Every structure is written in structure tokens, then in C-alpha cells.
Known about the structure:
Blueprint: H1 2-13, H2 17-37, H3 46-55, H4 69-94, E1 96-100, E2 114-119, E3 173-177, E4 183-185, H5 194-202, E5 216-218, E6 226-233, E7 238-242, E8 245-248, E9 251-252, E10 261-267, H6 274-280, E11 288-290, H7 299-302, H8 308-313, E12 316-321, H9 323-330, E13 335-340, E14 370-371, E15 378-380, H10 383-396, E16 403-405, E17 408-411, E18 414-416, E19 418-420, E20 425-429, H11 439-442, E21 445-446, E22 450-460
Antiparallel strand pairs: 1-2, 2-22, 3-6, 3-22, 4-5, 6-20, 7-8, 7-14, 8-9, 10-12, 10-13, 11-12, 15-19, 16-17, 17-18, 20-21
Helix pairs in contact: 2-3
Amino acid sequence: xxxxxxxxxxxxAGVKTTRWVRFAIVALxxxxxxxxxxxxxxxxxxxxxxxxxxxxxxxxxxxxxSKNKMVRAVMSWVDAIVYALILVYFIFAFVGQNYQxxxxxxxxxxxxxxxxxxxxxxxxxxVPMTPVYFPLVHNAFPEWAGGGKSYLESPSIxxxxxxxxxxxESGDIVVFNFPAGDSVPVNNSTTMDYYQQQYMYDSRxxxxxxxxxxxxxxxxxxxxENYVKRCVGLPGERIKxxxxxxxxxxxxxxxxxxVQFNYIVATNGRQITPQEWSDLGVSLNDVATIRPDNxxxxxxxxxxxxxxxxxxxxxxxxxxxxxAMVEKLKARGDIKVLKKANAxxxxxxxxxxxxxGDWSRANYGGEDGILIPAKxxxxxxxxxxxxxxERPIRVYENNPxxxxxxxxxxxxGEKRDDYTFNMDYYFMMGDNRDNSLDSRYWGFVPEDHxxxxxxxxxxxxDGEKGGIRWDRIFKDANPDK
Length: 481
């Protein structure tokens, strides 16, 4: 014991002041993180930090005393990479992370090719539910690195969200894990999720093999694909859509400045050039030329009332437009047709599949709308409510044996007439309203799927024209808030 005391004192005496300062800073940051986590047993790791920075009993830096230059050179790189990965892990898990916008569902608020910094501290970061993962990829290594899952399914941690600055608000742009992305068919060739495919197959709308028999990958909550949409409905609110206008608890909601709807456009005799579309701000990938002799265009439905003579005279275009774009087109003087496109269903079943037979993107929720679940909210469960809330009850709230039979809900064999939700849920939609696969197709977003809110556009790459959109660098990623 005396030898240990002497050795301990000797080690302390040999520590430089700068080393003590570094340890103090790291220890204070670590203890602040422990307080944020609310798990004070983690404070025991301060002992490990003390040894790393001060006493050095555990030989983490053994390689520095090696006589082999190659060992010292290689291990210095390994040491730097490990420290960097640990730092990245904590920043990505608890502060924020970069994400790419892969589709046009939020145009023109966010553009395809935008790289965002997503702030996880606004709503409070989730404690990683699959804590062992490689921090630079989401759920799979790239093919050049061998592919395969980039995380370990075990150990896993129950959902816990740390205290944030505020809750999700209506109008927020939110990054979240795709709720219907738990089961992903391998080599999926459609835009539909597994559950849409299953419904379409059972309804004899989708040909091919039964989706249940196709090889699938299961992803835990925080490893599911990241989506970004605008929150249009909060927990406990009742939402419906009438002629494209969102109603919350019976009150119409103002549209974001950059919201888009599909329009039918035609001139009085000539084509609109790609450059003209680009100058207007329309992505060329979103311009669909419509001719009635092309069955794929389904012109009689999309054009909604225009005569065959009118349609055959010049090309017609279906394009997503903001209100400002519509006014610019009106001012041209050569526009013969400019009207909203029919919001006929184009993508398959809406959520919930068994209730939405006469719903469409523009008229959603039926006469009464749908009630968004909220933590502590108790709802009677009848056949209609079961269709609406089956997935939240069974999957998101972990009641896999829940069934509805003989007019009653059964959980663990216990008959119930109602259900009380354990989490808050949200309704998300894209600003490109007629070209967005959102909550109208796959339902509510549970609170444990919420990742964060975009803060700034870090950089934006124009995939059509090539190069960088310099005017978007560090642009506010949520300008309507």
C-alpha cells in the first residue's frame, strides 16, 4: 500500500499544469453530459478519465514507448482516428448531424441536393437505442466497404429523450425515422413501403410475389431511413384536408410560402423550353409532358374536363408550382391553360388502407377528419378506430398480440373498450403536396422516431445543372418559422 501511495504521489507530481487543465475541461463537460442524461452512475467513468489524463495506470499509450518506428507511426494514426470517431459519435448522437435531401417532396423550401445540419438539441436528442454503430454511416456500409449492417442489434436501449429547448411545433420542418421502414424488402423496386405493397397485393391491385414471402431487412427505430417533412398536425389535434387545404380542429391553416401543387399548363401554340422552366424555378425532373395518345399520362383524369380537341392542339405540361410561379406564368401572355391538376390518387392506397377508399391527396380524412394520438389520450376502440390506430397500438407501442375481434380490443388476452396512448404522434406532409409520400400514405410519426429539425443548409449541389448553389450555403433550412 505504501508503495502504491508513493507511486501515486510521484505520478501526480509529474503531471504538467496544462494536463490538469485539459482534464478539468473534459471532466466538467462529461459531468454536464451525465447530468443531462440523468444517470449519475455514469459519473464513475470520471475515474477512467482521471487515469487517462493524469495517472496513466492503464497503458493506453503503450505504443509511444515502442522502439519500433513503424508501430509508433501506425498507432499514432489509430489513436487519432479512435479519438475522432468517439468525438463524432457523441456529436452526431447528442448535438446534430448532416443529412442530404434526396427528393423533391419539400421543394421549394428545401431542394434536392441540399446538405443540412440537423439540430438534435431543439427537441432533445434521443439516447441511442442501438448504441453500438459506426458513426459515419446510417444503417449499412457502402458496397465498396463490403456492405452489411453498420450496427449491432444487441445491446439495445429503451427509448429515452433528453430534455430539449422545446417541443415540436406546427409548421416545423422535422427529420425523423421512416415509421413504415421497419421491414424493407431486399431489392425493392417500388416507391411503396412494405405495408402498402402488402395491402395492394391482398387487394389484387399489385401483381408479383406476395410481399410476405420476399426477403426483408428489419431495422430498429433509430436505424430506419431518415425522412424530412413539415409537421402539419400535433398530438391531440384533429386533421382533415379539403380541396388541398389543411383543417386543424375545423380551422383552415395558412399555407407555407413555398407550398406547391400540381398545375396543368399549356401555351397558345408553342412548347415551353427547358430553359424557361429552369428560369421559372421548376426542376426539369418535375416537368411531365402530357399527350392524350399516351396511356401512361392518363390525360382524361389528370386534365379533368379539357376536351380532346384542346389537348391535341399543343403539348400540355403537369408541373408543381408555388403561388409566385403561378403569377409569373399568368404575366407571360401566351398561357392558354393554367389550372390545378386533378388530385386523383396516383400512388396507391392511402392510410389507413381499409378506410381511405374514397379519400384522395386533396380530400383526406373523411367528414370528421382523423384524431392524432397523444400521450395520455384515451380513445374508444371500435372497428373504425382499430383501422386507424392498429399500427400505433401493435407496433409503435409494442403490443404485438393486440387484436380486434367481436367488437372489442384484446391486449394480452384482456378485453378492452378503449386504449390510452403512451406516446405523442405527429402528422407530416411535404410542401410539394402532390408529389410527396407522407403521412397521408403511411400514417402517424411516433415521438420516438423524431430525430431533430434542420438548422442550416451546409452546401447545396445542383444535380441538373451541375455545380454548387452558392446562394444556398448557410441558408435557413426552416424559413417559415
